[in-house]
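This entry is listed as follows:

___
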Amino acid sequence: MAYEEHNILTQPMTSDDLKAILSKTENGTEDIISTRSKVFQKLNIDVDDLTINQLIVLISEHPSLLRRPIIMDDKRMQIGFNEDEIRAFLPRSYRQAELRDVMSSGA
């Protein structure tokens, strides 16, 4: 299963990366910003008042504002840890083999 890992804390995302993520969200900044992060609370800003460019600069300066993990393929995006939703990114053959293993172990 091929994938590419990108550590946003050590290698900040580009403006194009962030625009691509925002374009796939259903609720814009609400989907990607971690309002529980210490950085967000310390900054005390309303991201809804920011332009896209201001938001991109803010995230570039403070990558920990982003909820993680962010998993994307050509069609889907999952933000935040949800085991069942992340599993949907695994190839069907892997999911079927995993199910067989569970069924054979009697779990």
Summary: The longest helix spans residues 92-104. Strands lie at 70-72, 77-79. The helical segments are 15-24, 29-32, 38-43, 52-61, 83-87, 92-104. The first strand starts at residue 70 and ends at 72.
